[in-house]
Amino acid sequence: MNRLYKFSVAISLVMLLSSCVSAPLGYPKQESIALTDTSQAREAIAAREWVGGREDVNGFYPLSEGFDAFGARLKLMDMAEASIDVQYFLMKPDNAGLVFASGMLNAADRGVRVRFLLDDIFTSVEDVDLAMLDAHPNIEVRIFNPISRKGIYSFNYLGHFKLANRRMHNKAFVIDNAIAIVGGRNIAAEYFQLETTGEFIDFDMLTVGPVVREVSSQFDRYWNHVLAVPMEALFSESDKEKLADTRKQVNQLMAEAGESIYADAINTLILQQLSSNKIKPYIADARLITDDPQKLLEEVSDEQQIVVNEMRDALLQADSEVIILTPYLIPRDRGIELLKELNSKGIRVTILTNSLATNNHTAVHSAYARYRRRMLDAGVELWEARADAAKITTPDGKTQLDKLTLHTKGMVIDRKRVFVGSLNLDPRSIDINTEMGLLIDSPELGKLLTEQVREHIPSVAYRVNMDDDGHLSWHATIDGNEVIENKEPQTTGWDRFKAWFLKIAPEKQL
Questions:
Q1: Of 403, 407, 416, 426, which residue is the catalytic one?
Q2: Catalytic: 391?
Q3: Catalytically annotated residue among 409, 416, 426, 431
Q4: pTM tops 0.85
Q5: Residue 276, by phi and psi: left (phi above 0), alpha (psi -120 to 50) or beta?
Q6: Contact in structure between 94 and 188 (CB atoms under 8 Å)
Q7: 456 is a catalytic site residue
């Protein structure tokens, strides 16, 4: 008993001491903003040519395939002459991360200014590797809302949970303040069709025109915010030889991982067509909607929920139909009331989300499942992704992938308004994290995406139905056969037990 008491006291002291270790938010840094004198950069000229030589219009092109989206980023980094601004929720040290880092280094070697902003929690790249990037004279790395590296990391997280739980979920990639990619993808293999065991279905929008400067402005706001901490504040290694050795090691890994991936990615059919101007952009008015980074330092309130409030207003302006694609869906009472209001106006609402079999966050599915019957009562056409649909959605030769996960965050309203960005429809995105996205007014693009979604949903998802007694069933056409399931499809008893057990998870944290 005495030993147990001493052990408990020791653990309590460790946690107490570690809770006093906070991230160096006051570390000095130099403010910087997006370069504005880039009109003669190659990318800026190419962007203007793509939209007919005009500087006052926006042009868009959807990047649905992950490999195209990866190749577009690599190609743009290759062509950058002045600046690269990169902002992501996470990065992994896999083939995608290595090749992406190589692209930044190569651009920096040419004299391009690179600003790299990463959220801390789910980024699994080692600090020494990020410090290696930061050591380049033309690259600066900042970590958003970092956890202190002193002491025990997990205790530091728990000791400062109120702030550490609040994350930057934004995703933006900007070249020469002239071309941007905005969407849902992070920097990891599963987002770019480089993973060999599963497929993340995601979506980005290649963007040119005045709205790119809005993307740059939001980047600047986050980059200069107090929560954006220079990498040098988190990496105390003063041995320059270690950083040099790290670059040699990473360069070798990049070369091993990247030569064939790079060559294939920048030469996809769509990129060849874009490079030769054979693909024309969708010309449209648009605006960027973004949360303020100050949201993470404030109490949860309607005023801080900028992105979701703007999207709620856009949905309420719908006349006939709404399509929502969201990987994580927890509508809560307010969302159910919105769906009822849309239904009362005769608006067709179609939602595609993950099933239990495809959701990579089981606790989120547990919370979502509580709302299925209420959404169906509200007239929603509810679809859940099929885990085995990866063989349908991936390019030739990748039919061995055994699991699909929906990661797309988007909406199409009345076939003429398109939203693409980082926003999930769950409490974490709405209340806790910051989000961003583009709201594009384009009947041409909206019609295209509506037709594509309505054509493909039945082949990759189950339609969820409910009978008069409230019993759910899942309906799909698989290999030409009508299939009806009366329990969560493509799951095991263990999967369903975990989903049942995780109902204990606090919904407001999901």
A1: 407
A2: no
A3: 409
A4: yes
A5: alpha
A6: yes
A7: no
Instruction: Output phi, psi for 118, to 5 deg.
Output: -125, 135
The whole-number pLDDT of residue 400 equals 55
User: Which structural domains are found in the chain, ordered by start?
Assistant: 37-275 (3.30.870.10), 299-509 (3.30.870.10)
Kind and range of the H or E run holding 2: helix 2-19
pLDDT score of 258 more than 70 = no
Using CA atoms, how far apart are residues 321 and 126, in angstroms rounded to an integer? Answer: 46
446-482 burial, b if ≥16 CB within 10 A, otherwise e? bebbbeebeeebeebbbbbeeeeeeebebbbeeeeee
Active site residue 447: no
% of the chain surpassing 70 pLDDT: 92
pLDDT of residue 439: 98
- Out of 176, 204, 388, 431, which one is annotated catalytic? 176
Q: Which of 75, 160, 171, 361 is catalytic?
A: 171
Q: Is 302 a catalytic residue?
A: no
Predicted confidence (pLDDT) per residue in 96-109, tens digit: 999 999 999 999 99
Is residue 306 exposed (0-12), middle (13-18) or buried (19+ Cβ within 10 Å)?
A: middle
Q: In this structure, what are the phi and psi dihedrals at residue 126, rounded to the nearest 5 degrees?
A: -65, 145
416 belongs to the catalytic site = no
Catalytic site residue from 414, 441, 495, 498: 414
Is 407 tagged catalytic?
A: yes
